[in-house]
Amino acid sequence: MAAIASRSSTAVGTTSPWKPIFSSHLSRLSSPEFVLSTLHPASEPTSPVPYVPRLRYCIFRGLWGELPENPHNNAPMNERTYESDLPTFTTDVRMEKVPEIFATSAGHGSASQSQGSGGGGPVEAVFWVKEVMTQWRLRGEAFVIGPDIEGEGEGSSGVRTVKSELGKRMRVVKPGREAEWSWGRELTAHFGNMAPTMRGTFKNPPPGTPVSIPVTDPGLALGQTVHGLEDPIARSNFRVVVIKPSVVEQLDLSTPDTARRWRFTFIGEHVKPQSDSGEMIGEWLREELWP
User: Can you tell me whether residue 186 is helix, strand or coil?
Assistant: First the structure.
């Protein structure tokens, strides 16, 4: 139940070359906000393109498997068995970004499928760290983790996809402890890492619906607080979204006359890059570009 299914463990010591400085930069932010872009099906029948962009601000919640320590979080925690280069954020399953991530995936997931774990649609995340005058852009796929990640629903195709795709990029740092690591425990720990008022937002009326339509569920209202970890309404709406980046760009504008830009492209193990314009560092191709 707890062990990762359908994954190939990556050896210790293959940390992404961009991860240390990325993490260092984000640690300087009092509130690690970023802009997330998804694709939304075009609503106009005359639209020349099938999808249009949607952007919003999100809060960075750490890297998957490396949840930041929080003395106020009383949720059971996984031992630090894995590390990754997979940024996370939390969302409400009722928000449009969730079905967008499913609908634009290779499997073109339906609205009903977006109620569970799965996804894989393309996203881009942009961080601006003014303290160091550096912009970070991460392009890749996003995967949604919901309550079905363990238990009765873990045999679904969406759960298998999540564990397989993310598992490929989760590096074992404590060999032999993998079977004790739980996806469900990690999900609950993310819920516990939020303040009670933030947990309460998952009991808001349906996001994006007109206020003129009466809310018939007495459990839904603004301004609620949730102190426990298993509130049935809040937990049914709570999701963790994990970004699996394939391209990362770092633009350093700290010194205008010597501005620098790097692109890191995930190539994988034992794969020869098609470009000779950079150098391989672990599983990533690093290229320096004109800013």
Answer: helix
